[in-house]
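Milestone M4 deliverable, item 7.
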Amino acid sequence: MNKVLIIAVLALVSIGVNAQNVDFGVTAGYLNVRASVKVEDVSVSGSDSGFFVGFIAEFGAGDKFKVQPELVYANVNHSGALFLPVLGKIYLSDKFNLQVGPQFVFSLEESIPDFSSFELDFVGGIGVDVTDKLFVEARYSIQLNNSYTGSQDVTVKGNYLTVGIGRKF
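Output delivered:
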């Protein structure tokens, strides 16, 4: 897991070295997780809340499109995970943007047999640049892969709602 973290940080920094228009910053906020388990015809779901905090890099690719990779620590009920979203930001105006892209999630908890510690999500969201440095964002992500890797007919997935604030340096 430490190798993944080191590689992610190095990738984030090395991309910034080659980019001409890059802003770095921090983000934090509210996180709600909704988990669902489906066994044959029976489904059970529940949700819980926590927080997230992390680092962002925003790469300009013109006035209307930017790419924003992030390295985020998320915590719900004392269980931690690393979120690595790579989002395209489409600006509809000077301040308002739509966000879409993949998110890679790595559990920081001890592995459980028949369960993956990795998930792949699709993220959609909105953002508002309040000032040149301050922004607010709301996102929803849908898990694409099944966390259960065993031989039974079981599906385990999670979806995330995040609402946060951030500051660019």
